[in-house]
Amino acid sequence: ITSLALVLGDQLNASHSWFKTVNPQRLIILMEVCEETDYANHHIQKVVGFFAAMRNFAQALSTAGHSVLYIRLDDPHNHQSVTKNLTGLLEKLPSVAHVHLQQPDEYRVDCYLQAWAEQQSIQVSWFDTEHFLTQRSVLHDWFPGKDNFLMESFYRRIRKQSGYLMEHDKPIGGKWNFDKENRHKLADKHDVPAPLMFSHDVTDIVAMLTKAQVKTIGEIDPERFIWPTTRAESRQLLDYFIDKLLANFGRYQDAMHTDYWSLFHARLSFSLNTKMLSPREVVERAINYWQDHRAQVNEAQIEGFVRQIIGWREFIRAIYWHHMPNYSTTNFFEHSAKLPAYYWTAKTKMQCMAKSIEQSLKFSYAHHIQRLMVTGNFALLSGVAPDEVDAWYLGIYIDALQWVELPNTRGMSQFADGGILATKPYISSGSYINKMSNYCQSCHYDVNQRVGENACPFNSLYWHFIETHKKQLRNNGRMGLILNQWDKRDESDKQELLKQARFYLSQIDSL
Ligand code: FAD
Ligand code: SF4
Predict the structure, then answer these.
(1) For residues 321-350, b (16+ Cβ closer than 10 Å) or e, as one string?
(2) What atom of ligand 1 comes closest to residue 401's alpha carbon?
(3) The pLDDT of residue 161
C-alpha cells in the first residue's frame, strides 16, 4: 500500500474520479467514530442512516475490486477520531507515501483535517468532492468585492451557465421564478401518494450504538428503517418522486397537513447530502421527465423544484463558506431564551408545533415550511438563543450537516445574521399557519383570538416580537408595512397584546 484515500460519511459519491480505476496500492478508508456521533445530539435515524450508507458504500467499492478498510465504531483499535485513526494507520503502514483527502463540506471537519495535514511529513493532496455545481469560493469568484448577495442573481447565473430550463438564452415560460403560482393549501379531499419507505433491518447498528452508549434523540424501528442506504435505493426514491410527486411539487410546496408528513416533497436531502445522488442527476432526471410529460408537469412545478436544488442548495453552501466561522456566532436580536422542552417531546397543546415535532422525532424529517414557519418561527418569536435553535436542527434531521443547517437556521429562519441570507425575518402570526394548513382546525388554541385564555400564542408573540425589535426592524424596508400597522394600533390594544405575550412567555414550557 502506497497511498490512503479517506472517504467521509458525507462523501459517498460513487461517480467520483477516484473510483474510475482500481488501484491495488491505494487503500480506501471509511470510519465510524465517536467524534462524529457526539459533536451534536443526533437523531438515532441520522446516525444509523449514515453508518448504514457508509457500510453499503464500502461494500460496493470492495465488490468492484478496490482495497477498502472499514473501521467500525466497535473496533477495539478505533481511536474514535478521524485524524487519530489516520495517524495510527500511517504508523502501521510505513510504505504509505501519500494521503488523498476530499474537501470536507463542514468547517469543523475542514479545520481538523487541515491541521492534521499540516503536521504530516508525507504528501497530503486535496481533491474536490465532484458533487456541487459551484465551488466553495463561488461568491467571491462571481461577485468580487461584494458582500451582499441575492439568491435570485446567483440562481439566474447558474441557470444560464448550466442551460437548465433555458430556451435560446431565455428562461422557459419567459419567467425565472414561478413562486407566486405555487403557494396553495391542500384541498380537503386531495389524494396524496403515500411516501416511499424502505424497510431495512438495522438492529445490528442500533445494538452497537446502544452498547457504545452513543447519546441520541428520536425514535427508530430497527427492523424497518425507512431511509435509502444505497445509491440504487436513492435512485428509486428519485424515480418515485418524479413519477408520483413532481407534478404537484411546487403547487403544494408550502402546504402542511395533519395527515401527511411529507406531502409532495422529494425526501431526497439525505441522499443528496451524503452524495449518494448528485444534484445534476436529480435535476436532469426531473427536467427530462418534464420535457416528455408537459401535460402532467407544468413549468411552475419543474422550475420550483430545480430552484431548490441548483438555487437554494448551492447558494446556502456558498453563504456558509463565505461567512464561516463568524456566521456560527451571529445573534442579531441578542436572543437568549432556552428552547422549550416540547421541542424534544412534542408535548404541546399547539397543534402545528405538536405535529411538526412529532414527525421530526418519528421520521427525523419535517419539510421546509414546517421547519421555517412553525418550529423556526415559534423559536424566533419566543426569543430563543440561536445556539439552542441550531443545536436542535443540527441534531434532529436526517439531512442535517452544518453547511446546510446553519445558514438555513441562523440565517433564513432566525435572522441572526442580520439579513445576510434573507431580506427580512420569516415571522408570522397564526393566520399564515391557518392559511397553509389544517392544523388550526384541531388545535386547543383559537387562531382567531389574539388575547384571552385560548388565544393562539403565535398571534400575540408576533406583535411582541415587532414591538421588542422595532428599532432594528425600522432599517428594513420590507418590514415597513407591518411596523406602520403596529404604530397605528390603539395603545390599549397594544398593551393587551403585549400583556398576553408576556404571560405566554412566562409559561412558555406549558403552552
Ligand atoms: P424538497 O422540498 O423536496 O426539496 C428538494 C431538495 O431541494 C431538497 O432535498 C434539498 O436538497 C433542496 N433544498 C430545498 N430547500 C433548500 C434549502 N433551503 N437549503 C438547502 N437545500 C434546499 N436542508 C438540509 O438539507 N439540511 C438541513 O440541515 C436543513 N436544515 C434546515 C433548517 C431550517 C430551519 C430550515 C428552514 C430549512 C432547512 N433545510 C435543510 C432546508 C430544507 O428544509 C430541506 O432541504 C428539505 O426540507 C429537505 O426535504 P426534501 O428532500 O423533501 O426537500
Ligand atoms: Fe398553531 Fe395557533 Fe393554529 Fe394552534 S391555532 S395550530 S397554535 S397557529
Answers:
(1) bbbbeebbebebbebeeebbebbbebebeb
(2) 28
(3) 95
Q: Is 66 helix (H, G, I), strand (E, B) or coil?
A: coil
> In angstroms, what is the span from residue 85 Cα to ligand 1's centroid?
32
Q: How far is the CA of 378 from the centre of ligand 2 (A)?
A: 11
Residue with cell 447498528: 205
The span from the CA of 147 to the CA of 152, in Å, is 15
Question: How many other C-beta atoms are found inside a 10 Å radius of the C-beta of residue 404?
Answer: 21
Per-residue pLDDT tens for 89-110? 999 999 999 999 999 999 999 9
CA distance 468 to 391: 25
Q: Tell me the pTM.
A: 0.97
Instruction: Report the separation in Å between the CA atom of 268 and the middle of ligand 1, taken as the mean of its atom positions.
Output: 9
Whether 440 lines ligand 2, by a CB cut-off of 6 Å, is yes
Ligand index nearest the alpha carbon of residue 351? 2
User: What's the rounded Cα separation, in Å, for the pair 417 and 311?
Assistant: 20
List of domains in the chain? 3-127 (3.40.50.620), 138-201+229-323 (1.25.40.80), 341-510 (1.10.579.10)
Compute, in angstroms, the gap from residue 445 CA to the centroid of ligand 2.
6
